[in-house]
Amino acid sequence: QVQLVELGGGLVQAGGSLRLSCTASGRIFSSNAIGWFRQGPGNEREFVAAVGWSAGNTLYADSVKGRFTISKDNAKNTVYLQMNNLKVEDTAVYYCALTAVLVSTYWRRESSYNQWGQGTQVTVSS
What is the chain's mean pLDDT, rounded? Predict the structure, then answer.
């Protein structure tokens, strides 16, 4: 069973940047993808971005497109989420998760993921 650990959260001013990392222990298969989700205060958990482990194809939520970049380092079993031009509304607990769903369209669905990290808090101040 793969375990996922997120790092990199913190407090940043609006307009600033943070980079989150998600490191997996255990083997990630070429058919897997890693996604980032977030849950803000009083909100449901929502999809942020995902990347295919083999092909490196990516998918983004419209709310972060152009500001966030997801990338991977297969040798380190790590996925990164570079967040630029952060907004107050980006404040949330950010989770990474593992899916074996091949069709990228379904990466937006929380139910597609079967392994989750513990989350890391990102707070953006005005």
Answer: 96
